[in-house]
Amino acid sequence: MSDVEAEATPGSYVTPGQEYTRDTNYIEDRITRDAVDGWPVEAGRYRLVAARACPWANRSVISRRLLGLEDAISLGLPGPTHDARSWTFDLDPGGVDPVLGIERLQEAFFKRTPDYPRGITVPAIVDVPSGKVVTNNFPQITLDFATEWEEFFRDGAPDLYPDALRDEIDDVAEVIFRDVNNGVYRAGFAGSQGSYERAYTRLFDRLDWLEERLADQRYLVGDTITEADIRLFTTLARFDAVYHGHFKCNRNKLSEMPVLWAYARDLFQTPGFGDTIDFEQIKKHYYIVHSDINPTGIVPAGPDPRGWLAPHDRDELGGRPFGDGTPPGEPRPGEEVPSLTAARV
């Protein structure tokens, strides 16, 4: 196959007759204060590559913003679509990332491991001087942001992973990953009726559990926003726009679950959450890239995203979104997303 043909080849996401299993073998190096893996915490050295469309990448963008790490870790934003080879920087002038000088994220993986054999995934952190990927281990990236980069936090940064709550955060995050974050993919990429129905049932059983858990408490763990909320939010933000129809998660919409819908709107309207969400990029990614699920490539016009701005009344439950901290300021120039106040169906 020629390079041109490879660039145009879409990925395949469904294996007929089989249950979807996520490949969780990532580059597990960590960036830490003690540089145990050879990568020290150092402002200006690393670039976070995180597509707006991807829920796993969205977590890292939210964490970076809430903690105020924008000056310490730069942000590269691939476009919403990609082919079988790689995410590309087609939103940047000339289709080249202005810091890394590459057209495809794949190039940074190949600098680390020639002919890297696994998926080219976001988020990925790239060492700018060498151009090599340091890690694409998305669950650990945000935990390390919260625990290893304190020296570079903004004044008023929240504690997203408080010591006293870590065991509970980890437990809640694990079931959310298994049944919700990855559960929508297990339904959407199912290769058989049985595997789809099992994933569907687990997903909505867990959403019902979350509906009950959040009925009397504003946040998932404790009375402030934590890592657990960030992990749940990025799936909820995509639910009605993508997962309900595209992934056949259609028992009901998020907007038909009163508690979860109010909870999600509460977070969306909190600085650092909704101002990282670009619904047009999200829809383009799923409906165009997953061509074996949506072969026409038609992107839905709806739903109208302005419902995310409706009052949520969750503040009546108490809670302190940022604990003893403060909200982040406005997004940095070049990192803004389209305003929903101007959105049209």
From TrEMBL:
Q: What range(s) does the GST C-terminal domain occupy?
A: 159-286
Region annotation (Disordered) maps to 300-345
Lineage top rank: taxon: Bacteria
Report the PROSITE patterns cross-referenced here: GST_CTER (PS50405)
Identify the InterPro entries for this entry. Glutathione-S-Trfase_C-like (IPR010987), Glutathione-S-Trfase_C_sf (IPR036282), Glutathione_S-Trfase (IPR040079), Glutathione_S-Trfase_N (IPR004045), GST_Omega-like_C (IPR047047), GST_Omega/GSH (IPR016639)
Q: What is this protein called?
A: Glutathione S-transferase
Q: Per the UniProt entry, what species is this protein from, by scientific name?
A: Frondihabitans sucicola
